[in-house]
Amino acid sequence: MASDPSPKAPVQALHHIGIAVRSLAEALPRWTDGLGLRLQSTDEVPTERVRIAVLMAGDTRIELLEPTSPDSPIAQFLDKRGPGIHHLAFQVGDCQLKIDAMSALGAQMLNQKPNPGAHGCKVAFVHPKYLGGVLAEFVEDPHHD
Question: Are strands 38-45 and 11-20 parallel, antiparallel or unpaired?
């Protein structure tokens, strides 16, 4: 059996849960006023054609994702499945190392190199077929240890 390269690039924590919404303006009051979550920030990621609202539920980060273009991945997700959980994001120390480790294990990566994400992060996605239908994102966040 081949050695497992994944220990070289361990997942450190759940970074956030990504939730696709059609409109931040419509969705935010339900999460802030309704659930009482704290809006930490909003940001736009032009490379992904998405606007993000970062909400905090205690120490748990939830990102609402609104498409900024009809051909964005989030718009396509909404067209196919409607609003809801889009992905789970995992904090990693080195995004490229995690990409390489997952590829060595046979995982189909949607990114071979990290892409720029919100708030100065580097990100990469694993095809949902690898995790039984769950889209996973790896996040190298310069603001976390």
Answer: unpaired
Residues in CB range of 119: below 8 A, 6 or more apart: 41, 43, 54, 141, 143
Query: SS3 for 62?
Result: strand
Tell me the residue type at 74.
I
What Å distances lie between residue 134 and 26, 57, 106, CA to CA? 26, 22, 16
| Options 3.20.20.10, 3.40.309.10, 3.40.50.280, 3.10.180.10; CATH of 6-140 | 3.10.180.10
pLDDT tens digits, 6-47: 566 789 999 999 999 999 999 999 999 999 999 999 999 898
- Conformational region of residue 111, where left means phi above 0, alpha means psi within -120 to 50, and beta covers everything else: beta
C-alpha distances out from residue 72 to 52, 54, 67, Å: 13, 19, 6
